[in-house]
Design a protein that fits this description.
There is one protein chain. With 389 residues, the chain is α/β, with parallel strands linked by helices. It folds into two domains: 104 residues, Urease, subunit C, domain 1, CATH 2.30.40.10; 272 residues, TIM Barrel, CATH 3.20.20. 35% of the residues lie in helices and 23% in strands. Strands 1, 2, 3, 4, 5, 16, 17 and 18 form an eight-stranded mixed sheet that branches. A five-stranded parallel sheet has the order 11-12-13-14-15, covered by helices on one side. The protein has a three-stranded parallel sheet with strand order 6-9-10. 51% of the residues are buried. Bound molecules: zinc ion (ZN). Zinc ion (ZN) binds next to loops.
Length: 389
C-alpha cells in the first residue's frame, strides 16, 4: 500500500480535523459567541470556544450559523429548459437530474437539510446524496402526498404502512384543498385520524397541508406533527396547537415566487389575485402564532423557481412579518431540527453535532438581507462552498 493510501485510510478512520476561525457565531439556539474556533473532526463538531490553533478556514468578519433547514420543499418541481414550471411530468431520468440540480442550488443557498413533501423521485436523490455521490442537502422525503381520494380509513392506514415501508421519512397528507380552492376541509376527521394515528403507531411523523381552520383543527386533535401553511387558523386552533405542542410551518416564499415568476406558471388572473390575497393572512397568522409561543418552524414550500432562494423566507418573515431576526434563525435551525426528530444531530453549533455550517457576509440581526450573501457552506464536515475573499 502506498503512503498516500495509508494517509487517506487514516483520515477515513480517524476523521479529518479542521479548525475554523470565526469572529461571530449565532449558535442556532438563540445564543451568540465572539472570536471562537470551531474544531471539526470528521463529520462532527468536536469543540467550539476560544483557541489559537492555525485555522484551515478563516471566517472572521462573517456571521456563522448552523446550516439552515427548510422543512417544506418540493425537490422535483423545477423550471424546465424553457423556464416553465415542471415536475414529475416527464421521464424519470429528467426528473432525477432536475431534482439533483435543485438539491445543489439549495445547498449553495445555505440549506444543509431539507424535507421534501414530496415525490417518489426524491428517494433516489436522497440516497445518492447520503452516499456522497451527489452534492446536496440532507434530504428527508414523504415520497408521496396522501389525499382524501386515497380511500377509507382502513385503506389510508395501509397506505401509510406502505409509504413507510418504501422508505419515507415522513408522511404528508392533505386535510384541506389549496388556497385557490378556498382551503376547505377535504379529508374527513376519521381519515385524518387514520393517517396521523397510523403514522404515530409506526413512529413516523405526519405533516399536514391545511389552509382552512377546520381541517387544521382536526389534524391537531388527531395528533399530527405539524400544520403546513395554516393560512386561516383561528386563535382557538392556535391555542390548541400551543397546548399540544403541534409545530407550525407557515410559508411565504411560495406565494411571492408564484407572483414574481408568474410567466413560468399557468395561473389565471383570478388565481394570481387569490395568491396575492394570501400573503396578508399568512403574515397575520405567523404573528398570532408567535404571540402564543407556538413552535414555528421554517418551511418555504419551495417549488420551481425557489430552489436556492429558500433564504428569502427569512426576509419575508423579518421585513414583512416583523419577526425578530434571532427568532427566524432559531426557527430555521434548532427548532426545525427538533421538528424533524433530529435535534440531537443538527440545528446548532455545539460539540457532538454534525458540522453543518453556513456563513454570510454581514450581520442578519442588523440587516436580514445578509442571508442572501452566503459565502461558505459546510455539510457534515465537508465544504461545498467557499467564496469568501
Ligand atoms: Zn408544498
Amino acid at each position: 500500500m502506498k503512503l498516500t493510501s495509508l494517509f487517506l485510510l487514516a483520515c477515513t478512520v480517524f476523521g479529518q480535523r479542521l479548525v475554523i476561525q470565526t469572529s461571530s457565531i449565532l449558535d442556532g439556539k438563540g445564543g451568540s459567541m465572539r472570536n471562537a474556533q470551531i474544531v471539526v473532526d470528521g463529520t462532527k463538531i468536536l469543540s467550539v470556544g476560544p483557541g489559537s490553533a492555525t485555522a484551515d478556514y478563516d471566517l472572521r468578519g462573517l456571521t456563522v450559523m448552523p446550516g439552515w433547514i427548510d422543512t417544506h420543499i418540493h425537490l422535483n418541481w423545477h423550471m424546465d429548459e424553457n423556464n416553465k414550471s415542471a415536475g414529475g411530468t416527464r421521464n424519470q431520468a429528467d426528473d432525477a437530474l432536475y431534482s439533483a440540480g435543485d438539491a445543489w442550488m439549495t445547498l449553495q443557498g445555505g440549506f444543509t437539510t431539507v424535507q421534501s413533501v414530496g415525490a417518489a423521485i426524491d428517494g433516489v436523490v436522497r440516497d445518492r446524496i447520503a452516499q456522497g455521490l451527489l452534492p446536496g442537502p440532507r434530504v428527508l422525503t414523504s415520497l408521496r402526498q396522501i389525499q382524501a381520494n386515497a380511500g377509507d380509513p382502513e385503506a389510508l392506514r395501509a397506505l401509510v404502512r406502505k409509504t413507510k415501508q418504501e422508505g419515507a421519512d415522513v408522511i404528508k397528507l392533505f386535510a384541506t384543498s389549496g388556497l385557490g380552492a378556498g382551503g376547505g376541509q377535504t379529508m374527513t376527521d376519521e381519515q385524518i385520524q387514520a393517517v396521523c394515528g397510523e403514522a404515530k403507531a409506526l413512529g413516523i411523523r405526519a405533516v399536514v397541508h391545511a389552509i382552512g381552520d377546520s381541517g387544521a383543527r382536526a389534524a391537531v386533535l388527531a395528533g399530527c406533527t405539524s400544520i403546513e401553511h395554516g393560512t386561516f387558523l383561528t386563535n382557538e386552533t392556535l391555542d390548541l396547537m400551543a397546548q399540544r405542542g403541534t409545530y407550525f410551518d407557515p410559508n411565504l416564499l411560495v406565494l411571492h415566487n408564484y407572483l414574481d415568476k408568474r410567466e413560468s406558471f399557468t395561473f389565471t388572473q383570478a388565481q394570481l389575485d387569490t395568491l396575492e390575497k394570501g400573503i396578508a393572512p399568512t403574515i397575520d397568522v405567523l404573528q398570532r402564532a408567535r404571540a402564543r409561543n407556538i413552535k414555528i418552524i421554517f418551511g418555504t414550500d419551495a417549488v420551481a423557481g425557489s430552489h436556492g432562494r429558500n433564504a428569502e423566507e427569512f426576509v419575508y418573515r423579518v421585513r414583512d412579518a416583523k419577526e425578530k431576526p434571532m427568532d427566524a434563525i432559531v426557527s430555521a435551525t434548532s427548532l426545525s431540527a427538533q421538528s424533524l426528530g433530529l435535534g440531537g444531530e443538527i440545528g446548532a453549533i455545539a460539540p457532538g453535532l454534525e458540522a453543518d455550517l453556513v456563513a454570510v457576509v454581514g450581520n442578519p440581526q442588523e440587516e436580514i438581507t445578509a442571508v442572501r450573501r452566503v459565502v461558505f457552506v459546510m455539510k457534515g464536515g465537508k465544504v461545498y462552498k467557499n467564496v469568501h475573499k
